[in-house]
Design a protein that fits this description.
Elements (H helix, E strand, L loop, with lengths): L14 H16 L12 E6 L5 H12 L3 E5 L13 H9 L4 E6 L4 H7 L5 E6 L5 H15 L6 E5 L6 H10 L6 E5 L8 H9 L4 E4 L2 H4 L5 E4 L10 H7 L7 H4 L7 E3 L20 H19 L17 E3 L13 H4 L6 E4 L5 E3 L8
Parallel strand pairs: 1-2, 1-3, 3-4, 5-6, 5-8, 6-7, 8-9
Antiparallel strand pairs: 10-11, 11-12
Helix pairs in contact: 1-11, 2-11, 3-4, 5-6, 5-11
Bound molecules: N-carbamoyl-L-aspartate.
Length: about 375
């Protein structure tokens, strides 16, 4: 039997596998009709415990364009979640109904927990402030389409780097390619989390931090803008203080390179001035469109309809340890282990001895 593959974080796929995904997405863009029946009879289930426009619609459109069907919920209040059903039970049930599941959840590590109980591929469509790997596939595919490569690039990432899950996945993914460097631009309150910066330092990855767009924009190839994630603040006064701290204006764009591209996972609030939409460097709408094609490619790969993708994997097989005592347990209050007490705590020991939670990625201290 073929192995079930999941996409929980970008590192679940090797860079070679990512290249296969991007190539297939490009072929689908060229000739979508050729793929119109590849998923005939297949069912995608979408479990959206949090709001979404692009991610859910693009997944659903992707499956329908491949000839398949979609079931699911976009509001957990309309499902048995309101009766207290936990993530493992929900995925056990839908594993019997559908062929592939997409899950978005406000709790970090929920998709990982689902994958442990699933008989079908599970795709993480965003888990709290942790990761959003399919947005990253979209981002990388867009960068690749512009520059023809994913290495030797300088990437500015701006806005809410603390809660912006798309930025965490982007950093993980782009730091695997040679000679990339990062500039993290944010107010002090929204800096890239220390656990991510520590990991970059351990890898010897070049990055610097800046407080303003003017300081960081001048020599980057990719400028990745993000929204301040209001829904993740426990203190709304703090949100009010920082919400307008990074706004990209036509004036600031004068400092940028002529062939830079602006990406944004969207939705935007006010962080990109609408006049910039007509600038040739504004790539965010075409980025969103590409998202559907990359998800078509991802579905074909995970459903084992694109060569021998599912047979050869070793990428995500790191050694996981089940926690035995309190000291080995994840202390992140936003982790699924803090929300669903029946789950066993699991961690992964890095080469330097640091332990990270297998669900939410936080360092265990
Ligand atoms: C992002 C998300 O949900 O994390 N949106 C998306 O999926 N394109 C970004 C955001 O909500 O700000």
């Amino acid at each position: 039997m073929d192995k079930v593959r999941h996409l929980i974080e970008p590192l679940d796929f090797t860079t070679e596998e990512l290249e296969d995904l991007f190539k297939l997405a490009d072929k689908i863009i060229e000739n979508p009709k050729e793929y119109a029946h590849e998923c005939d009879g297949k069912i995608l289930v979408t479990l959206f415990y949090e709001p979404s426009t692009r991610t859910r619609f693009s997944f659903e459109a992707a499956m329908i364009r491949l000839g398949g069907n979609v079931v699911g919920f976009s509001d957990p209040d309309s499902s048995s979640v309101t009766k207290g059903e936990n993530v493992p039970d929900t995925i056990r049930i839908v594993s019997g109904y559908a062929d592939v599941a997409v899950i978005r959840h406000p709790v970090e590590g929920a998709p990982k927990a689902a994958s442990l109980f699933s008989r079908i591929p599970v795709i993480n469509a965003g888990d709290g402030g942790h990761q959003h790997p399919t947005q990253t596939l979209t981002d990388l595919s867009t960068i690749r389409s512009k520059f023809g490569r994913l290495d030797n690039l300088k990437i500015g990432i701006c806005g809410d780097l603390k809660y912006g899950r798309t930025t965490h996945s982007l950093v993980d993914a782009m730091s695997r390619y040679e000679n990339n460097s990062f500039v993290f631009i944010s107010p002090d309150e929204l800096r890239m989390p220390a656990y991510i910066c520590d990991e970059l330092k351990q890898k010897g990855q070049t990055f610097k931090e800046a407080r303003t767009i003017e300081e960081g924009i001048s020599d980057v190839d990719v400028f990745y803008m993000t929204r301040v994630q209001r829904e993740r603040f426990s203190d709304l006064d703090e949100y009010e203080r920082v919400k307008d701290s990074c706004i990209l204006t036509p004036e600031k764009m004068k400092l940028a390179k002529k062939d830079m591209i602006i990406l944004h996972p969207l939705p935007r609030v006010n962080e990109i001035h609408p006049d910039i939409d007509d600038d040739a460097r504004a790539y965010y709408f075409r980025q969103a469109e590409r998202g559907m094609y990359i998800r078509m490619s991802l579905l074909l790969h995970l459903l084992n309809l694109a060569g021998d993708f599912c047979r050869n994997n070793t990428a995500s097989e790191h050694e996981v340890v089940i926690a035995e005592g309190e000291a080995e347990m994840c202390k992140n209050p936003k982790c699924i282990t803090a929300n669903e007490s029946a789950l066993k705590h699991r961690y992964y020991v890095h080469r330097n001895g640091v332990k990270t939670c297998d669900y939410c990625g936080r360092i265990i201290e």
